Amino acid sequence: MAVIMERTRNLFHPLHAALVAGALALFLGALLSDVTYFRSYAIQWNNFSSWLLAGGLVIAGFALLAAIVRLFRTRWRARSSLYALLLLAAWVLGFIDALVHARDAFATMPTSLVLSVIVVVLAGAALVVALVGGRTGGVA
User: Fold this and answer.
1) Where are the domains of the chain?
2) Per-residue pLDDT tens over the stretch 82-102
3) I need a labelling partner for 61 at 20 to 30 A (CA). Which of 22, 75, 81, 82 fits?
4) What is the pLDDT of residues 24-44, one digit of tens each?
5) Torsion angle, alpha carbons of 114, 126, 58, 30, to 10
6) What is the C-alpha separation between 18 and 14, in angstroms, rounded?
7) How far apart are CA 116 and CA 104, in angstroms?
């Protein structure tokens, strides 16, 4: 008698999730620094946000590189391409946000705050795509 077993498995290497989670943490820190700067106008918070964005861009760049390599080596192109596109969008908007932060501190608001929110949402969506496993079935 054949028993159909259904299991879930993550299609992404744990390194993908670790890189995206690290970038998300730094992007979230930049968002929180932007919110604090928006409320207090203490220029140091804008400097903190700039450094956190730079770190997030470095880590997200490595995650994007791994996503591009995975895109060409996998059978599951739909999820891999969604993951790569989300990371690419987060990286590009994060880079634009870093350029906005390079301006005078008082000229960064509210553009940097809006961009930081979008970057955090995109990086979070990429993390969800990397962590949620696909369903695979088999016959035992």
Assistant:
1) 9-131
2) 989 999 999 999 999 999 999
3) 75
4) 999 999 999 999 999 998 999
5) 30
6) 6
7) 17
